[in-house]
Design brief:
With 275 residues, the protein is α/β, with parallel strands linked by helices. The protein has nine helices and twelve strands. Helices cover 37% and strands 18% of the residues. The longest helix is centred in the C-terminal third of the chain and has 19 residues, at 256-274. It is globular and about 55 Å long. The relative contact order is 0.14. Bound molecules: NADP nicotinamide-adenine-dinucleotide phosphate.
């Protein structure tokens, strides 16, 4: 029996259990994936306790992605970002599959040489910025808190072209960016239903990626579609980061269509229940 799970605080609305349990079933693996709300002062106990109980792996979400790095050997992107979203508890290795999730979300598109504006400099913003510079784009990061945005730029600049632009002046970039990424909670259920940038930034043919996946159709996705942009849904990043985590734990490539279907179904249910 394979035990897997996700830890965070809070964790109530996670769709990861639905997504991973569907993938386990499809792959014919006897296992279960559960969500655990861990109080911040218990995080170290939770990691070592899960290992002691024989869990094979965990996903890690807000607010623990950076803290768990202290207990683990970090691999690849986790080492570059000092942020972990996937743990192999058998080896005590931390991975960051969010970067892979972003890259796969752009896999149909050629972003090399393009200019990308990333709004937000938290975990998702840094993962998106790193993925895009690795794909050959020039990245402009903007963030409400300038110091945090500058820190992210310093980190990403080691791996590609990256600059900061002040959040209040971002409208000045109208006509100058090819890709827009929202990596703030704006548009997410329970947060302000607002656009992360002035609407005039949205131009026909632009690629717009909203990392927010709940709801699937965010205000940014709707406005971008109306403006003639090509849209990428946050659910793509969610599914692909999950698929990579699944592969790390099981050695098997999961059925991503089954995972996407399960995630969308769980999102629809969570929307109805809390409406
Ligand atoms: N699709 C996926 O798989 C996936 C994975 C992870 C995250 N996400 C999405 O990404 C979002 C951010 O997650 P995270 O882990 O990066 O969170 P985080 O580390 O807490 O960072 C949040 C970012 O959003 C900014 N922000 C928050 N409220 C804002 C507001 N009202 N106006 C402007 N900026 C605001 C913050 O700016 P300050 O620095 O000024 O606070 C910060 O840059 C989440 O809401 C989630 O929807 C999606």
């Amino acid at each position: 029996m394979m035990y897997l799970g996700v830890i965070g605080y809070p964790i109530r609305h996670s769709v990861s259990p639905a997504m991973h349990n569907a993938a386990l079933k499809k792959a014919g693996i006897e296992g279960v994936y559960l969500a655990f709300e861990v109080r911040p002062e218990m995080i170290k106990d939770a990691i070592f306790g899960a290992r002691a109980l024989g869990f094979a792996g965990l996903n890690v979400t807000i607010p623990f992605k950076e803290e768990v790095a202290d207990f683990l050997t970090l691999e690849g992107h986790a080492a570059l970002l000092k942020a972990v979203n996937t743990v192999d508890l058998r080896e005590m290795v931390g991975y960051n599959t969010d970067v892979y999730g972003v890259k796969r979300s752009f896999s149909d598109l050629d972003v090399g040489g393009k200019t990308a504006l990333v709004v937000g400099a938290g975990g998702a913003g840094k993962a998106a910025a790193l993925a895009l510079v690795e794909l050959g784009a020039t990245v402009i990061i903007t963030n409400r808190t300038e110091s945090r945005g500058m820190e992210a730029v310093e980190l990403i600049r080691r791996h590609g072209e990256c600059i900061f632009y002040p959040f209040e002046r971002v409208g000045e970039l109208s006509g100058k960016v090819d890709i827009l990424v929202n990596a703030t909670p704006l548009g997410m259920k329970g947060f302000a239903q607002a656009l992360p940038v002035p609407a005039k930034i949205l131009k026909p043919g632009m690629i717009v990626f909203d990392t927010v996946y709940n709801p699937v159709d965010t205000p940014l996705i709707r406005s971008a579609r109306e403006a003639g942009c090509r849209v990428i849904y946050g659910i793509e990043m969610l599914v692909h980061q999950g698929a990579r985590a699944f592969e790390i734990w099981t050695g098997i490539k999961p059925d991503v269509d089954v995972m996407r279907e399960a995630a969308i179904k769980a999102l629809k249910n969570s929307f109805i229940h809390s409406a």
